[in-house]
Amino acid sequence: MTDSSAWRPIVLTLFPEMFPGPLGVSLAGRALGNGLWSLEIRDIRASATDRHRSVDDTPAGGGPGMVLRADILASAIDSACALDAAPRPRLLMSPRGWPLTQARVVELAHGPAPLIVCGRFEGVDQRVIDKRALEEVSIGDYVLSGGEIAAMALLDACVRLLPGVMGKEVSASEESFAGNLLEYPHYTRPQRFEGEGVPAILISGDHAKVAAWRQAKAEELTRQRRPDLWAARNQKAPKDNAKGWQTLSFVL
Fold first, then answer.
1. pLDDT at residue 61 greater than cutoff 60
2. How many C-beta neighbours within 10 Å does residue 118 have?
3. Residue 135 phi, psi (nearest 5)
4. Where are the beta strands (DSSP E) in 14-75?
5. What is the H or E stretch that residue 118 is in?
6. 182-193 pLDDT tens trace
7. CB 182 within 8 Å of CB 220
8. Percent of the residues in the chain that have a pLDDT greater than 70, as a whole number
């Protein structure tokens, strides 16, 4: 049975049938089934006022595509938040938004569950973004057909952090983001694969050397692949933690 205090995000979308999608399987799905979180999906078209359930119109000033109307979306937002005892973050998934970071994910997971608007068409009328204080969020420098997949990515990242979803694994995993480093390479059995062995240091039993190797590899990968993270790390000059290394890690 779902706990009434469980983390409960609301998603506004033109395609409610897309949910829960991937959120209904694996870690997120098990947590959803166990009542550790719940998901409310609302169809934006339910706020339409004409018999055709229209939600968009042509862009002012001309140009291609259509724009999601301010009045329709504002009505959907107001209806979704009408019973909220306290304000919740209001997010709009948008390729022009602020980049989603692990720090923001932690804030969202540890605070009131957000309302997430899934954009479509050419965009959303700027007036509803301003009047309803929507925080535009991007998951990367590319354009999707709509905000649904982006919303799922954001929700999956948050659900992993909820108490009871991942147990003890999550604490060490998420502390690692503070160091602005990509994750070091992983190895497991078999000890030899197509002529290549596991690095000897990883099976040496010397934990200090293993930690140093991982730190060096994480720094090397970050310098090569994410100079922005490397620059941020050097600017902050974080102190080494007790483990001796910090990495960006992902659990699938």
1. yes
2. 27
3. -90, 110
4. 40-43, 56-57, 67-68
5. strand 115-118
6. 999 999 999 999
7. no
8. 87
> What pLDDT, on the 0 to 100 scale, is given for residue 244?
37
Going by DSSP bridges, is the β-strand pair 115-118/56-57 parallel, antiparallel, or unpaired? Answer: unpaired
Instruction: Please determine, for residue 94, whether its predicted confidence score (pLDDT) is greater than 80.
Output: yes
Express each pLDDT in 166-217 by its tens digit: 876 545 454 555 578 899 999 999 999 999 999 999 999 999 999 999 999 9
Cα four-point dihedral sign 89, 93, 96, 102: positive
Residues 6+ apart with CB under 8 A from 146: 13, 14, 15, 118, 119, 120
- Both structure tokens of 115: 């309302």
> What number is the average pLDDT over the span 113-137?
97
Sign of CA dihedral 105, 111, 113, 119: negative
Which of 13, 40, 195, 17 minimizes the C-alpha distance to 113?
40
**At residue 2, what is the residue type?**
T
The contacts of residue 171 (CB under 8 Å, 6+ apart) are: none
Beta bridge partner(s), residue 182:
248
What is the spatial order of strands in the sheet that 115-118 belongs to? 40-43, 10-13, 115-118, 90-99, 135-138
Q: Beta strands of 125-245 (E only): which ranges? A: 135-138, 192-193, 196-197
Q: Which residues on adjacent β-strands are paired with residue 115?
A: 10, 90
